[in-house]
Automatic annotation (TrEMBL):
Protein name: Aminotransferase
Aminotransferase class I/classII large domain sequence ranges: 38-379
Enzyme class, broadest EC rank: transferase
Database matches in CDD domains: AAT_like (cd00609)
Lineage: Bacteria, Pseudomonadati, Pseudomonadota, Alphaproteobacteria, Rhodobacterales
Length: 391
Protein backbone atom coordinates (compact mmCIF):
# COMPACT_ATOMS: atom_id res chain seq x y z
CA UNK A 1 0.00 0.00 0.00
CA UNK A 2 1.17 3.54 -0.70
CA UNK A 3 2.25 5.59 2.29
CA UNK A 4 0.71 8.62 0.54
CA UNK A 5 -2.82 9.77 1.17
CA UNK A 6 -5.38 9.20 -1.54
CA UNK A 7 -5.71 12.98 -1.65
CA UNK A 8 -2.01 13.41 -2.42
CA UNK A 9 -2.12 10.76 -5.14
CA UNK A 10 -5.19 12.36 -6.75
CA UNK A 11 -3.60 15.81 -6.59
CA UNK A 12 -0.46 14.55 -8.26
CA UNK A 13 -2.42 12.77 -10.96
CA UNK A 14 -4.33 15.95 -11.78
CA UNK A 15 -1.15 17.99 -12.36
CA UNK A 16 1.38 15.39 -13.57
CA UNK A 17 1.09 16.31 -17.26
CA UNK A 18 1.83 19.98 -16.58
CA UNK A 19 4.56 19.24 -14.02
CA UNK A 20 6.38 16.85 -16.33
CA UNK A 21 6.23 19.35 -19.17
CA UNK A 22 7.52 22.15 -16.94
CA UNK A 23 10.44 20.09 -15.68
CA UNK A 24 11.51 18.69 -19.03
CA UNK A 25 10.46 20.79 -22.01
CA UNK A 26 13.96 22.25 -22.47
CA UNK A 27 15.89 19.18 -21.32
CA UNK A 28 18.93 18.46 -23.43
CA UNK A 29 18.68 21.70 -25.40
CA UNK A 30 21.73 23.93 -25.47
CA UNK A 31 20.68 27.38 -24.20
CA UNK A 32 22.68 28.92 -27.01
CA UNK A 33 20.30 27.30 -29.51
CA UNK A 34 17.12 28.66 -27.90
CA UNK A 35 15.51 31.27 -30.15
CA UNK A 36 12.36 31.87 -28.13
CA UNK A 37 10.68 30.49 -25.03
CA UNK A 38 6.96 31.15 -25.56
CA UNK A 39 5.64 28.69 -22.97
CA UNK A 40 4.85 30.12 -19.53
CA UNK A 41 3.96 33.72 -18.69
CA UNK A 42 7.36 34.50 -17.26
CA UNK A 43 9.34 37.73 -17.75
CA UNK A 44 12.23 37.83 -20.22
CA UNK A 45 13.30 41.39 -19.51
CA UNK A 46 14.34 43.20 -16.35
CA UNK A 47 11.47 44.09 -13.96
CA UNK A 48 9.65 47.41 -14.18
CA UNK A 49 11.84 50.08 -12.51
CA UNK A 50 8.85 51.51 -10.63
CA UNK A 51 8.12 48.06 -9.20
CA UNK A 52 11.70 47.64 -8.00
CA UNK A 53 11.64 51.10 -6.41
CA UNK A 54 8.36 50.38 -4.64
CA UNK A 55 9.60 47.09 -3.17
CA UNK A 56 12.89 48.64 -2.07
CA UNK A 57 11.07 51.49 -0.34
CA UNK A 58 8.74 49.14 1.52
CA UNK A 59 11.60 46.92 2.68
CA UNK A 60 12.94 49.76 4.82
CA UNK A 61 11.43 49.38 8.33
CA UNK A 62 9.42 52.32 9.60
CA UNK A 63 8.40 50.85 12.97
CA UNK A 64 9.49 48.04 15.32
CA UNK A 65 6.63 45.84 14.14
CA UNK A 66 7.33 46.35 10.43
CA UNK A 67 8.10 42.65 9.99
CA UNK A 68 5.77 41.33 12.69
CA UNK A 69 3.06 38.76 11.96
CA UNK A 70 0.61 40.17 9.41
CA UNK A 71 -2.83 38.98 8.41
CA UNK A 72 -4.92 40.92 5.88
CA UNK A 73 -3.82 44.45 6.74
CA UNK A 74 -6.33 47.29 6.69
CA UNK A 75 -4.28 49.70 4.58
CA UNK A 76 -3.96 47.51 1.46
CA UNK A 77 -7.55 46.29 1.83
CA UNK A 78 -8.78 49.89 1.90
CA UNK A 79 -6.78 50.75 -1.21
CA UNK A 80 -8.12 47.71 -3.04
CA UNK A 81 -11.73 48.38 -2.00
CA UNK A 82 -11.49 51.91 -3.38
CA UNK A 83 -9.83 50.97 -6.69
CA UNK A 84 -12.05 47.91 -7.17
CA UNK A 85 -15.15 50.02 -6.58
CA UNK A 86 -14.02 52.55 -9.18
CA UNK A 87 -12.98 49.88 -11.66
CA UNK A 88 -16.07 47.65 -11.47
CA UNK A 89 -18.68 50.22 -10.46
CA UNK A 90 -19.61 48.32 -7.29
CA UNK A 91 -19.32 49.61 -3.70
CA UNK A 92 -16.68 47.28 -2.24
CA UNK A 93 -15.70 47.65 1.41
CA UNK A 94 -12.31 46.92 2.94
CA UNK A 95 -13.72 44.18 5.16
CA UNK A 96 -14.82 42.29 2.04
CA UNK A 97 -11.23 41.91 0.81
CA UNK A 98 -8.84 39.17 1.96
CA UNK A 99 -5.14 39.55 1.09
CA UNK A 100 -3.68 36.36 -0.39
CA UNK A 101 -0.52 34.93 -1.90
CA UNK A 102 -1.45 35.74 -5.47
CA UNK A 103 -4.51 34.45 -7.31
CA UNK A 104 -3.33 30.93 -6.46
CA UNK A 105 -3.85 31.73 -2.79
CA UNK A 106 -7.18 33.44 -3.46
CA UNK A 107 -8.52 30.45 -5.40
CA UNK A 108 -7.31 28.11 -2.67
CA UNK A 109 -9.06 30.24 -0.06
CA UNK A 110 -12.32 30.28 -2.02
CA UNK A 111 -12.23 26.50 -2.37
CA UNK A 112 -11.52 26.08 1.34
CA UNK A 113 -14.36 28.41 2.31
CA UNK A 114 -17.05 26.83 0.15
CA UNK A 115 -16.25 23.18 -0.56
CA UNK A 116 -16.71 20.09 1.57
CA UNK A 117 -15.44 16.61 0.80
CA UNK A 118 -17.13 15.37 -2.36
CA UNK A 119 -18.53 18.76 -3.36
CA UNK A 120 -18.30 19.65 -7.03
CA UNK A 121 -16.80 22.66 -8.79
CA UNK A 122 -17.44 23.32 -12.49
CA UNK A 123 -14.31 24.42 -14.34
CA UNK A 124 -13.89 25.52 -17.98
CA UNK A 125 -12.31 23.33 -20.66
CA UNK A 126 -9.90 24.41 -21.98
CA UNK A 127 -8.85 26.31 -18.90
CA UNK A 128 -6.10 26.94 -16.40
CA UNK A 129 -4.46 23.62 -15.62
CA UNK A 130 -4.24 23.98 -11.82
CA UNK A 131 -7.93 24.10 -10.91
CA UNK A 132 -8.30 20.32 -10.88
CA UNK A 133 -5.23 19.62 -8.73
CA UNK A 134 -6.26 22.29 -6.20
CA UNK A 135 -9.70 20.74 -5.95
CA UNK A 136 -8.31 17.22 -5.56
CA UNK A 137 -6.07 18.51 -2.76
CA UNK A 138 -9.28 19.36 -0.88
CA UNK A 139 -11.03 16.07 -1.65
CA UNK A 140 -13.42 17.98 -3.89
CA UNK A 141 -14.46 17.07 -7.40
CA UNK A 142 -13.53 19.03 -10.55
CA UNK A 143 -16.25 18.92 -13.21
CA UNK A 144 -14.81 20.13 -16.54
CA UNK A 145 -17.38 21.68 -18.88
CA UNK A 146 -16.33 22.54 -22.44
CA UNK A 147 -16.57 26.08 -23.69
CA UNK A 148 -18.45 26.65 -26.93
CA UNK A 149 -16.53 25.06 -29.77
CA UNK A 150 -14.85 27.61 -32.03
CA UNK A 151 -15.84 30.77 -30.17
CA UNK A 152 -14.73 29.51 -26.71
CA UNK A 153 -17.59 31.46 -25.17
CA UNK A 154 -19.39 30.24 -22.05
CA UNK A 155 -21.80 27.42 -22.88
CA UNK A 156 -24.54 28.15 -20.35
CA UNK A 157 -26.63 25.14 -21.40
CA UNK A 158 -23.65 22.82 -20.88
CA UNK A 159 -22.96 24.34 -17.47
CA UNK A 160 -26.59 23.84 -16.46
CA UNK A 161 -26.51 20.22 -17.61
CA UNK A 162 -23.45 19.62 -15.39
CA UNK A 163 -25.05 20.96 -12.19
CA UNK A 164 -25.94 18.37 -9.55
CA UNK A 165 -27.00 18.61 -5.90
CA UNK A 166 -23.26 18.60 -5.03
CA UNK A 167 -22.39 21.63 -7.20
CA UNK A 168 -21.08 24.51 -5.08
CA UNK A 169 -18.97 26.66 -7.42
CA UNK A 170 -18.80 27.58 -11.09
CA UNK A 171 -15.42 29.00 -12.10
CA UNK A 172 -15.56 31.80 -14.66
CA UNK A 173 -12.16 32.94 -15.96
CA UNK A 174 -12.36 36.26 -17.82
CA UNK A 175 -10.29 37.31 -19.71
CA UNK A 176 -9.84 33.62 -20.37
CA UNK A 177 -6.59 31.69 -20.26
CA UNK A 178 -5.66 30.27 -22.77
CA UNK A 179 -7.98 31.75 -25.44
CA UNK A 180 -8.02 35.45 -24.50
CA UNK A 181 -11.84 35.63 -24.74
CA UNK A 182 -13.63 38.23 -22.59
CA UNK A 183 -17.19 37.24 -21.80
CA UNK A 184 -19.91 39.75 -22.60
CA UNK A 185 -22.29 41.20 -20.05
CA UNK A 186 -25.17 39.54 -21.92
CA UNK A 187 -23.60 36.08 -21.66
CA UNK A 188 -22.74 36.58 -17.99
CA UNK A 189 -26.30 37.71 -17.32
CA UNK A 190 -27.57 34.56 -19.01
CA UNK A 191 -25.33 32.51 -16.72
CA UNK A 192 -26.48 34.51 -13.68
CA UNK A 193 -30.15 33.96 -14.48
CA UNK A 194 -29.60 30.21 -14.82
CA UNK A 195 -27.61 29.98 -11.56
CA UNK A 196 -30.26 31.99 -9.73
CA UNK A 197 -32.88 29.51 -10.87
CA UNK A 198 -30.75 26.45 -10.05
CA UNK A 199 -29.83 27.87 -6.65
CA UNK A 200 -33.50 28.24 -5.83
CA UNK A 201 -34.10 24.62 -6.84
CA UNK A 202 -31.27 23.47 -4.56
CA UNK A 203 -32.33 25.83 -1.74
CA UNK A 204 -28.77 27.15 -1.37
CA UNK A 205 -26.57 29.40 -3.49
CA UNK A 206 -24.27 28.15 -6.19
CA UNK A 207 -21.30 30.53 -6.14
CA UNK A 208 -19.33 31.96 -9.03
CA UNK A 209 -15.58 32.20 -8.53
CA UNK A 210 -14.59 34.94 -10.98
CA UNK A 211 -10.95 34.30 -11.80
CA UNK A 212 -9.73 37.75 -12.95
CA UNK A 213 -5.90 37.91 -12.82
CA UNK A 214 -5.83 39.26 -16.42
CA UNK A 215 -8.61 41.82 -15.87
CA UNK A 216 -6.30 44.77 -16.58
CA UNK A 217 -4.62 43.20 -19.60
CA UNK A 218 -7.09 43.97 -22.38
CA UNK A 219 -6.56 44.99 -25.99
CA UNK A 220 -8.31 47.42 -28.34
CA UNK A 221 -10.04 49.10 -25.37
CA UNK A 222 -12.15 45.98 -24.89
CA UNK A 223 -14.93 46.36 -22.33
CA UNK A 224 -14.97 44.17 -19.24
CA UNK A 225 -17.81 43.03 -17.01
CA UNK A 226 -17.16 41.11 -13.83
CA UNK A 227 -19.70 38.41 -12.93
CA UNK A 228 -19.92 40.24 -9.59
CA UNK A 229 -21.88 42.98 -11.39
CA UNK A 230 -24.66 40.61 -12.42
CA UNK A 231 -24.63 37.79 -9.83
CA UNK A 232 -24.56 38.52 -6.09
CA UNK A 233 -22.96 35.27 -4.92
CA UNK A 234 -19.65 36.00 -6.65
CA UNK A 235 -16.13 35.87 -5.26
CA UNK A 236 -13.35 37.61 -7.23
CA UNK A 237 -9.74 36.49 -7.22
CA UNK A 238 -6.97 38.75 -8.50
CA UNK A 239 -3.18 38.69 -8.78
CA UNK A 240 -0.75 41.57 -9.24
CA UNK A 241 1.76 39.17 -10.78
CA UNK A 242 0.21 39.33 -14.26
CA UNK A 243 -0.08 43.08 -14.84
CA UNK A 244 3.35 43.59 -13.23
CA UNK A 245 4.82 40.57 -15.08
CA UNK A 246 6.30 39.49 -11.75
CA UNK A 247 4.67 36.15 -10.88
CA UNK A 248 7.28 35.49 -8.21
CA UNK A 249 5.84 38.30 -6.08
CA UNK A 250 3.05 36.40 -4.40
CA UNK A 251 0.37 38.97 -3.67
CA UNK A 252 -3.28 39.12 -4.65
CA UNK A 253 -6.70 39.09 -3.06
CA UNK A 254 -10.09 37.47 -2.78
CA UNK A 255 -13.03 39.90 -2.76
CA UNK A 256 -16.67 39.22 -1.92
CA UNK A 257 -19.21 40.96 -4.13
CA UNK A 258 -20.87 43.95 -2.51
CA UNK A 259 -24.17 42.69 -3.94
CA UNK A 260 -24.05 39.53 -1.84
CA UNK A 261 -26.42 39.45 1.15
CA UNK A 262 -24.79 40.93 4.25
CA UNK A 263 -25.23 37.77 6.32
CA UNK A 264 -23.38 35.69 3.73
CA UNK A 265 -20.54 38.19 3.47
CA UNK A 266 -20.24 38.34 7.25
CA UNK A 267 -19.84 34.56 7.41
CA UNK A 268 -17.22 34.58 4.64
CA UNK A 269 -15.25 37.40 6.28
CA UNK A 270 -15.02 35.57 9.61
CA UNK A 271 -14.09 32.25 8.05
CA UNK A 272 -11.50 33.71 5.66
CA UNK A 273 -9.16 34.80 8.45
CA UNK A 274 -9.27 31.52 10.33
CA UNK A 275 -9.03 29.48 7.11
CA UNK A 276 -5.88 31.34 6.09
CA UNK A 277 -4.32 30.80 9.51
CA UNK A 278 -5.30 27.13 9.50
CA UNK A 279 -4.01 26.81 5.95
CA UNK A 280 -0.48 27.72 7.02
CA UNK A 281 -0.62 31.48 7.59
CA UNK A 282 -1.25 32.06 3.92
CA UNK A 283 -1.01 35.86 3.87
CA UNK A 284 1.31 37.92 1.62
CA UNK A 285 4.60 39.09 3.09
CA UNK A 286 4.43 42.38 4.98
CA UNK A 287 6.46 44.54 2.50
CA UNK A 288 4.23 43.45 -0.37
CA UNK A 289 1.12 44.47 1.55
CA UNK A 290 2.67 47.86 2.36
CA UNK A 291 3.37 48.32 -1.37
CA UNK A 292 -0.19 47.74 -2.61
CA UNK A 293 -0.85 51.48 -3.02
CA UNK A 294 2.17 51.65 -5.35
CA UNK A 295 1.33 48.41 -7.17
CA UNK A 296 -2.10 49.73 -8.09
CA UNK A 297 -0.44 52.46 -10.18
CA UNK A 298 2.11 50.28 -12.03
CA UNK A 299 1.67 47.99 -15.01
CA UNK A 300 3.33 46.58 -18.10
CA UNK A 301 3.04 48.39 -21.42
CA UNK A 302 -0.25 47.06 -22.83
CA UNK A 303 0.34 48.78 -26.18
CA UNK A 304 3.66 46.99 -26.61
CA UNK A 305 1.99 43.71 -25.67
CA UNK A 306 -0.79 44.37 -28.18
CA UNK A 307 1.82 45.04 -30.86
CA UNK A 308 3.37 41.62 -30.18
CA UNK A 309 -0.09 40.03 -30.38
CA UNK A 310 -0.78 41.72 -33.71
CA UNK A 311 2.63 40.86 -35.16
CA UNK A 312 2.48 37.18 -34.30
CA UNK A 313 -1.22 36.75 -35.04
CA UNK A 314 -0.88 38.32 -38.48
CA UNK A 315 2.12 36.18 -39.36
CA UNK A 316 0.58 32.91 -38.22
CA UNK A 317 -2.77 33.49 -39.93
CA UNK A 318 -0.92 34.46 -43.11
CA UNK A 319 0.72 31.02 -43.08
CA UNK A 320 -2.60 29.24 -42.60
CA UNK A 321 -2.80 28.79 -38.84
CA UNK A 322 -6.30 28.90 -37.33
CA UNK A 323 -5.86 31.32 -34.41
CA UNK A 324 -8.09 33.07 -31.92
CA UNK A 325 -7.75 36.85 -31.78
CA UNK A 326 -7.40 37.44 -28.02
CA UNK A 327 -9.19 40.37 -26.42
CA UNK A 328 -7.10 40.03 -23.26
CA UNK A 329 -4.42 38.04 -21.38
CA UNK A 330 -0.96 37.64 -22.91
CA UNK A 331 -1.53 34.43 -24.85
CA UNK A 332 -2.33 33.28 -28.37
CA UNK A 333 -4.34 30.10 -28.84
CA UNK A 334 -4.46 28.22 -32.10
CA UNK A 335 -4.89 24.90 -33.84
CA UNK A 336 -1.78 22.85 -34.54
CA UNK A 337 -1.14 21.88 -38.17
CA UNK A 338 -2.45 18.36 -38.58
CA UNK A 339 -4.24 18.58 -35.24
CA UNK A 340 -1.34 17.09 -33.25
CA UNK A 341 0.13 19.62 -30.82
CA UNK A 342 2.80 17.27 -29.42
CA UNK A 343 4.31 16.62 -32.86
CA UNK A 344 4.05 20.32 -33.64
CA UNK A 345 5.75 21.46 -30.43
CA UNK A 346 8.56 18.93 -30.90
CA UNK A 347 9.12 20.18 -34.43
CA UNK A 348 9.41 23.76 -33.19
CA UNK A 349 11.65 22.73 -30.30
CA UNK A 350 14.12 21.31 -32.79
CA UNK A 351 14.40 24.86 -34.12
CA UNK A 352 14.89 26.34 -30.64
CA UNK A 353 11.30 27.62 -30.28
CA UNK A 354 9.25 26.43 -27.31
CA UNK A 355 5.47 26.64 -27.02
CA UNK A 356 2.87 24.91 -24.86
CA UNK A 357 1.00 21.92 -26.31
CA UNK A 358 -2.75 21.81 -25.91
CA UNK A 359 -2.46 18.45 -24.14
CA UNK A 360 -1.88 20.48 -20.95
CA UNK A 361 -5.39 21.89 -21.42
CA UNK A 362 -6.93 18.57 -22.49
CA UNK A 363 -7.10 19.94 -26.03
CA UNK A 364 -4.40 18.01 -27.97
CA UNK A 365 -5.25 19.65 -31.30
CA UNK A 366 -4.35 23.14 -30.02
CA UNK A 367 -1.32 25.06 -28.75
CA UNK A 368 -0.67 28.15 -26.63
CA UNK A 369 1.92 30.89 -27.11
CA UNK A 370 2.95 33.33 -24.38
CA UNK A 371 3.47 36.89 -25.56
CA UNK A 372 5.62 37.78 -22.55
CA UNK A 373 8.68 36.94 -24.65
CA UNK A 374 10.64 39.88 -26.00
CA UNK A 375 9.86 41.35 -29.41
CA UNK A 376 13.25 40.02 -30.55
CA UNK A 377 12.30 36.49 -29.50
CA UNK A 378 9.04 36.71 -31.39
CA UNK A 379 10.81 37.83 -34.55
CA UNK A 380 13.37 35.04 -34.14
CA UNK A 381 10.57 32.46 -33.82
CA UNK A 382 8.80 33.37 -37.06
CA UNK A 383 10.95 31.31 -39.47
CA UNK A 384 10.30 28.20 -37.37
CA UNK A 385 6.54 28.79 -37.40
CA UNK A 386 6.58 29.36 -41.15
CA UNK A 387 8.57 26.18 -41.76
CA UNK A 388 6.31 24.13 -39.47
CA UNK A 389 3.20 25.38 -41.27
CA UNK A 390 4.49 23.99 -44.55
CA UNK A 391 5.85 20.67 -43.28
Amino acid sequence: MSMLSARAVATSGAIDTVFNFFMGYRAGVDDMKVRADLTFGNPHEMPLPALVSAIKARMEPQSPDWFAYKTSELQPRSVIAATLSAELGLPFRSEDVAMTQGAFGAIALAFSLLLDIGDECIIPLPGWFCYASMLRARNSVPVPVPLSEGSFDLDVAAIEAAITPRTRIVVVNTPHNPTGVIYSRARLTELADMLTRKSAELARPIFILSDEPYRRIRFDNAAFTSPAAVYPHTLIDYSYGKVLLAPGLRIGYLAFSSEMPEADRKALRAAALTSQIGGGWSFPDAPLQYAVGDLETIGIDIRALQHKRDRLHAALTQWGYAMTHPQGTFYLWGRAPGGDSLTFTRRLAQQGVFIMPGTLFDRPAYFRISLTATAEMIEASLPAFEAAANS
